[in-house]
Structures are given as structure tokens and as C-alpha cells.
Amino acid sequence: MNGLVRLEWEKQRGRSPQNELERLESETLALQEENKFLLRLQEAGRLPMLDYLTLKALNKKRIEHLLKQNGATQKPAAPQEPI
To answer: Which of 4, 51, 59, 69 is 20 to 30 A from 15 in CA distance terms?
Structure first.
């Protein structure tokens, strides 16, 4: 029952699981494009050497920040009914 209440609450806020998936896929694509851009700058000699682990760590921190910023890591509070 709690899961149904949560799904309804998320629908009312426009946060269906499909919308969240699409948003995360979009952000992933943006991060991939950002990586390509950084690698092109590195190849052109405009950035110091960036190794794979550095890029991976930067992306992980960025993804965590985006998730926290958008509240994806926090469960929504259950709606309170008046007493």
C-alpha cells in the first residue's frame, strides 16, 4: 500500500519513474559529451593530462551532486493527513 501511495504522490509532482529515467539518461548523455569535449581539449594541448580515473572520479562526484540536487536520493515524506 505504501508503494502505491508513493507512486501517486510522485505522479502528482510530475515525477513518474519514466520521467526520472529519461532525466537521468539525458544527464548521462550530457556527461558523455562533456567528457568528449575535455578529451578534445586535452588532445589539443589546452588541458593538462587527465587520466581515466580522474575523469571517472569527476563524473561520479557530478552525478552524486545532480542526484542530491534533484532529490533523487531522498525518499519523499509520506503525505500527512489531518488529525
So the answer is: 59
Q: For residue 51, what are the contacts with CB-CB under 8 A and spacing of at least 6?
A: none
Task: Report the interhelical angle of 52-69 vs 17-43 (nearest 10°).
Answer: 150
CA proximity to 73, closest of 82, 62, 64: 64
Provide the residue type at 10 as one letter: E
Kindly state the percentage of the chain with pLDDT values over 70. Answer: 58
C-alpha cell at 58: 569527476
Q: pTM (2 decimals)?
A: 0.42
> What SS3 class is residue 69?
helix
